[in-house]
Amino acid sequence: MTPPSLPKSPFSSPFASTASTKPGHGEVVVSLLPPSLPTLSTLSYKYPLKLITRKPATTLNSKHPDSATTPVHLYLLTYGGGLLPGDHIEVSITLQPRMRLVLTTPQGSQKIYKTETGVASLVQERARNRSRTGNAIPDNKDAHMSRQTLDVKLGSQSGLCYLPDPTQPFEDSQFEQIQRFTLLRNQQPHTTKSTTTTTSSSSSEEPPAINYNPSLCVLDWVTQGRTARGEDWSFHSWKGRNEVWSEDVSTGKRRLLLRDNVMLEEEVNTASNNNKNADSGAGGGLFQPLSIRTRTRPHGILGTFVLHGPLFDSLANFLMEEFTSQPRIGGRNWSASAPTTTSTNSNANADPGKNVMWTAARVRGDFVLVKFGAKDFESAREWLGGLVRREGSVVGEFGDEGLGCL
Fold first, then answer.
1. Are strands 215-223 and 301-308 parallel, antiparallel or unpaired?
2. Which candidate, 225, 214, 205, places its Cα nearest to that of 152?
3. Cα separation, 167 vs 111, whole angstroms
4. Are 269 and 125 in contact (CB under 8 A)?
5. Which regions of 87-143 does DSSP assign to beta strands (E)?
6. Does residue 283 belong to any structural domain of this protein?
7. Which residues contact 324 (CB under 8 A, 6 or more apart)?
8. Which HAMAP family match (predicted)?
9. Facing residues of 44 across strands?
């Protein structure tokens, strides 16, 4: 007698050995059901990755009410609170048109656990050999490097608010992160449009064009490690790359819009560097490699903040105005008769930013890229969180929980 068949679960177990999802891989598709109900049409993940979602009852104060939908919250977790050497997390997210997603990490800072001492020494030796010979030595880096890949595709009028906690690399750890965001063009929502033409003068007054571009707000930052244990940029390597692409959905043609790389690695003393310095007469031919600690001093945290799209235009303009209002080196008149001027915009937030050094720039016109370094995590969070709260776009478009770790 055959046992009765159990009903099939709509979600795959992250521990099931028969699941088609690869270890550490996850896939999420956010869609809109009629009349205006955001839902997850696809949600899958497998150990050591875990994805949790919720749709909080949030009242939005959106500047774009025609396209505003209730944001879906997705929490990115890992079992153990971090990544071990050899772990590879890969998450693929697709936002259908008009969908909004808040992506965050509720476990606090993502820990990058240390590589074994013997393996770490072997990695350093291979790096020296590669620098001397110029040839890559075969190496299975997946065996001792933690990696994370995030691939997000955004449909028209969709929005992503990604404000995670910073990564915290432990001593002797190695980490590589790639975050790729693809903006899908020519994917406008279906709307009923009248084709009747008239000759009246009122027909020449057309309403403002709707901006169908996707929007994204991305924060990527890394700390110096566990300061309570005396760690101060003591890891072997931390590599982070953020890319934004544009893709024509009708032709599949892709174009790179923005690429930002942060590479923190220990420099090594090599014979080729010594020869170069000897030829130039610098330091008697001795190359002095700079540690990560020396190159990042006096900062305890480094970060990148990327803004793009109509949902964050106001915040982008606010940050650019705030940056241009800051005093410049050499910009002060030191004569006794010159009056002292201060910016009213920055004066109210002088204390939160006293331990922060930052810069902001427009890239290709419609991107705003902010780079910052701060004394510690608390200083950076208080400074950036204060600016974002004071402007109000994130809370208005994604609710209070859209602030994430800020």
1. antiparallel
2. 214
3. 6
4. no
5. 88-95, 100-104, 110-112
6. no
7. none
8. UreD
9. 27
Cβ-contact 405, 163 below 8 angstroms:
yes
* Residues in contact with 338: Cβ distance below 8 Å, sequence separation at least 6, in sequence order: none
Q: What's the total number of domains in the chain?
A: 1
Distance CA 107, CA 211 (A): 36
Count, residues in the chain: 406
What is the residue whose two structure tokens read 């707000």?
217
State the Cα–Cα distance between residues 31 and 98, nearest whole angstrom: 9
At residue 383, φ and ψ (nearest 5 deg) are: -70, -55
Residue 180 inside a domain? The answer is yes
Domain of 61 in residue numbering reads as 25-188+211-266+298-327+343-403
Quick check: is 140 in a domain? yes
Range 185-192 contact pairs with CB under 8 angstroms and sequence separation of 24 or more: 185/156, 185/213, 185/246, 185/247, 185/248, 185/249, 186/248, 186/249, 186/250, 187/97, 187/155, 187/156, 187/212, 187/249, 188/97, 188/156, 188/212, 189/67, 189/97, 189/98, 189/156, 189/157
Give the separation between CA 406 and CA 372, rounded to whole angstroms: 15
pTM for this model (two decimals): 0.80
Give the gyration radius of the chain's Cα atoms: 25
**Residue in the structure block whose two tokens are 């079992």:** 79
Domain membership flag for residue 6: no
The three-class DSSP label of residue 143 is helix
